[in-house]
Amino acid sequence: MTEINWNKWREPKPFGISGCFRLRNESQFMRAAVESFLPYLDEAVLCVQPSDDDTELIVLDLLRKHPKKVRVVNYPYIVDWIDTPGFYQKDPNKPGHLVHMSNYALSQCKYSWIAKVEGDVIALDTMGRIVDAIKDDPDAHRYYGMVILNLAGKNMDKFSWQNPRNGGWDEAVFNNNPDWYKFHRIGKWESIPSTHGVNNGWSAIHMKRCKDGKDDGWNGESYVDLTRDELSDALELYNAQHGYPANDDPHGIDEIFEGDWRRWL
Question: Which CATH number characterizes residue 66's domain?
Answer without folding.
Answer: 3.90.550
